[in-house]
Amino acid sequence: MGSCWSSPSNEYNHSGNAKTSTSGNTGFSATSSSGGNGKFSEVASASTDGADLNGEILETPNLKVFSFSDLKSATKNFKTDNLLGEGGFGKVFKGWVDEKTLAPSKMGSGMVVAIKKLNPESMQGFDEWQSEVNFLGRLSHPNLVKLLGYCWEEKELLLVYEFIPKGSLENHLFRRNPAIEPLSWDRRLKIAIGAARGLSFLHNSEKKIIYRDFKASNILLDWHYNAKIADFGLAKLGPSAGESHVTTRIIGTYGYAAPEYVATGHLYVKSDVYGFGVVLLELLTGLRALDTKRPSGQQSLVEWTKPMLSQRGKLKNIIDARIEGQYSFKAVLQTAQLTLKCLATEPRHRPSMTEVLETLDRLN
């Protein structure tokens, strides 16, 4: 089985990351999704089982269909000054639309949006664009980025999202901009709880949704540091009744993907839990999941630090020094224990996202 991977993106992540995909589709359906996802309408009658009642799954996408000329106008002809970032999908631009009608408005007036424009030469292209529409277009939850609409005119494929002002967790956690204040322990915990709520909502729908690409660059932060999961280009419907997993070609991001998925292509709901564990580890240590600049033996954060998570003495040595004095060691120890459970080699030994959320809530 082939393996398609990306490295963590360096950019504002409404742009997506450099994931490789092949597009064999020639048509678009508002009621079915590509790449073996099956009919998304099966999940319309979602039940969150008490995990989070603030979300809903719509029977059909409630999205505005934008014209290409509208989006050119909203971005001032995709002006370079309005460029927010760039990834494998293409470029992302800041735009302005009327808050009620979503018609293009003057720069600086109305509502700010983020407009993702497909690079015609992108290898991931249509499949992931369609997956975004079919999944995110029907999902409504405070901890998921809101997709407002899309454009498909000839070769032009675009997506229009709510604008998330503080960008990605990756940018804040790894301080790409020296002007960015280091995240406090309380904010890190708040972000983890918000992201856990979003994943729990997906996993507890009647037809479980596997996000498949959970990582720091796909978690965006609003003004109040509320976490919003973005980029549903790799999302899959979960296994059918009586089955434990779905089998799919391997695609994702080094350092975050669960071992069973990397080895076999078997994708479990709890494969997402492993990715969540990696992000928890990044929040604890302030270090990237994968960094080839670190010494040999330390480049994979999980392989390097996993043995230390259960050892009090060694745990203190890997906690991010920037949050020193901001937490009780008991809280950090409990977070480390939860991280270790999420990173269990066998999917059945990992907690559910509902259990993860309950544990994090007790720490708050």
SSE topology sketch:
Elements: E1 3-6, E2 56-57, E3 64-65, H1 68-74, E4 83-86, E5 90-97, E6 111-118, H2 125-136, E7 139-140, E8 147-153, E9 156-162, H3 169-173, H4 185-203, E10 209-210, E11 219-221, E12 227-229, E13 236-237, E14 246-247, E15 250-253, H5 259-264, E16 266-267, H6 269-285, H7 301-305, H8 312-318, H9 329-342, H10 353-363
Parallel strand pairs: 1-15, 3-8
Antiparallel strand pairs: 2-7, 4-5, 5-6, 6-9, 8-9, 10-13, 11-12, 14-16
Order of helices and strands: EEEHEEEHEEEHHEEEEEEHEHHHHH
Number of H- or I-type helical stretches: 10
* Largest sheet composition: 6 strands, mixed
Indicate the structural class. Answer: alpha+beta
What is the CA-atom radius of gyration, in angstroms? Answer: 20 Å
Gross morphology: globular
| Residue fraction in strands | 15-25%
Report strand order across the widest sheet: 3-8-9-6-5-4
CATH class of the largest domain: Mainly Alpha
Number of domains: 2
Overall mean pLDDT: 84
In CATH terms, what is the fold-level topology of the largest domain?
Answer: Transferase(Phosphotransferase), domain 1
- What's the CATH architecture of the largest domain? Orthogonal Bundle
CATH superfamily membership of the largest domain? Transferase(Phosphotransferase) domain 1
Q: Helical proportion?
A: 25-40%
Q: Termini separation (Å)? A: 43 Å
